[in-house]
Amino acid sequence: MEPLIVLVGVTCIVLITGVLKVPPLRRLPTALRGGLAAMFLLTGGAHFVGMRDELVAMVPPALPAPEVLVSVSGVFELVGALALLWAPTSGPAAGALGLLLLALFPANVYASGTAKDWWDQLIPRTITQLIFLSAAGTVLVDRLRATPLRRHNRKQPAVPAGRGSRDSSAIAPADKRRKADAGG
Description:
This protein has seven helices and no strands. The protein has helices at about 1-20, 30-45, 50-60, 65-85, 85-110, 120-150, 175-180. Helix 1 packs antiparallel against helix 2 (about 30-45), helix 4 runs antiparallel to helix 5 and helix 5 (about 85-110) runs antiparallel to helix 6 (about 120-150). It is globular.
């Protein structure tokens, strides 16, 4: 339950900060990056401090070396959380963390069999994981959409003086389209 509270709380704080002071933070995918980063810092840290024994106990018995699996997944979560905070790596990080959530889902199913609290039962755990996966997917899709735009909007190299002519055939194709759209 705590990871969900952190995801929602930090995402809301980032959105409010965007509305009040920092306009780039107004976008939901950007706010989700902050919320996911905080959530994965919390859960990744729990793999080493505080809840390590509970997380080791969540590993299904069919899997070997539960302590190693918990440590490796904790490192992946911490690295992914940090990578979410830098725009160029946030897309791959969101995709990798989404895959990690899917890979770890069997541990959630196994843990739900011994759950004492209602939020640790299978249905609430599944819904929570779907929320986390949706947040990671939103960030991934946003970054994938942003990537082609950066490539498309690159400036055309300038023609050195003395080369080319000033007639319309020297205008780059993208410039011709802009000129035609502007009515010129």
